[in-house]
Design goal:
single chain; 184 residues; 9 helices; 51% helix; globular; binds fe (ii) ion
């Protein structure tokens, strides 16, 4: 049975109403990739003193990951690793990681969640922070991937002259990854 009038309180809901909500939510899953692409485009307005804006930094990080042979989930995660800055620079790694979490395997989630601690080796000394903050994660199965991400792809991707793929290049991968949540 199709229910047109849905509940006004969750404690009055029925299984049929939830089936309809579930079906409609699945139909509209496509909006997730569209929203991610919109947020990435908006990163183009954030430069904050860097040599490239945050969209170009994201594209360059993903380009380097792809050229190094990273799989599609990792490339999309590289593209989205700073998407949290759309909302807030403080805590941005965790914002990005939680956006990605339903769509990527655990090791990719952890690499994005902790990427600033790995990046610290390259600049924390300017602020009196611990450049070896990454050491708290040594022994984790994803530690090596975290090092590769930070040292080879992320921290190196502020180069205005590096041939960087445009957002359109990554759009099909973004649509594929965000079309299939593993968890809700
Ligand atoms: Fe970054």
């Amino acid at each position: 049975m199709t229910t047109t009038a849905s509940f006004r309180r969750m404690d009055e809901s029925t299984a049929e109403q939830w089936a309809e909500i579930g079906a409609r939510t699945c139909e509209r899953q496509v909006r997730v990739a569209a929203q991610i692409l919109r947020m990435l485009r908006d990163l183009g307005a954030i430069t904050d003193g860097f040599a490239v804006d945050q969209l170009r930094h994201s594209l360059q990080t993903a380009t380097r990951a792809e050229q190094a042979g990273a799989d599609e989930e990792m490339v999309v995660a590289a593209l989205c690793h700073d998407i949290g800055k759309f909302v807030s620079v403080p805590n941005h790694p965790r914002i990005a990681a939680e956006i990605l979490r339903p769509y990527v395997r655990d090791e990719v989630f952890h690499v994005i969640r902790t990427h600033q601690d790995f990046q610290g080796r390259h600049y924390y000394h300017h602020f009196g922070g611990d450049p070896e903050a990454r050491e708290q994660y040594r022994g984790e199965s994803w530690f090596e991937l975290g090092e590769r991400f930070a040292d080879l792809w992320d921290q190196a991707s502020f180069d205005p002259d590096f041939p960087t793929e445009p957002l359109e290049h990554f759009e099909p991968a973004v649509c594929r990854v965000f079309a299939r949540p593993r968890t809700f």
